[in-house]
Specification:
2 domains, globular, three-stranded parallel beta sheet, Fructose-1,6-Bisphosphatase, Chain A, domain 1, seven-stranded mixed beta sheet
Length: about 200
Amino acid sequence: MISDLNLVKEAAVEAGGVILNYYKADYDIQEKGYHNPVTTADRKADTRLKEILLKARPDYGWLSEETVDSAERLEKRRVWVVDPLDGTKEFIEGVPHFVVSIALVENGQPIIGVLYNPVTGEIFTATQEKGACLNGEPIHCTAKENVREMIILNSRSETRQGLWELYAGTFGELRAIGSVAYKLGLTAAGQADIFATLRPKNE
């Protein structure tokens, strides 16, 4: 039987292919709430992930940003936690800062995490046993101590609004990147030193 990690990787790549079918193409956009869009790509990728993951592991629970929640998952020992397209605003703008985000949680503790950027081909994986990897190679966070040498990943929207201008001379570089999950992956891979936001986040 395929391992949970390999199953998640295959599912993420499959969902990424679904997303690419709509990238810079025609699709519907709806608003779930204030500044919270959802597209055809979000919904189609969510459907495909659910098909793959629950078919392979029917005894696991399901929690997704794009699926109506069910209390049944609270009775499951293991639960898939999914955001089929984290970075929807960037996807809409044609900016390749978005990922398929999948985690497997066991008794409330994450045991597997996978992020997949279908445009760049980056696949971030993490398990309790094997640590974190990017495209199969081990990764780790940086260990810089001088903030003036640090690369800070921040929000594209916060940058556009000028909220980071006050800190322009504080760090080595301010780099505006979309998708919270993608920023976390890049930081874990040592491609930046800190992911920071000036506003509360739900993640």
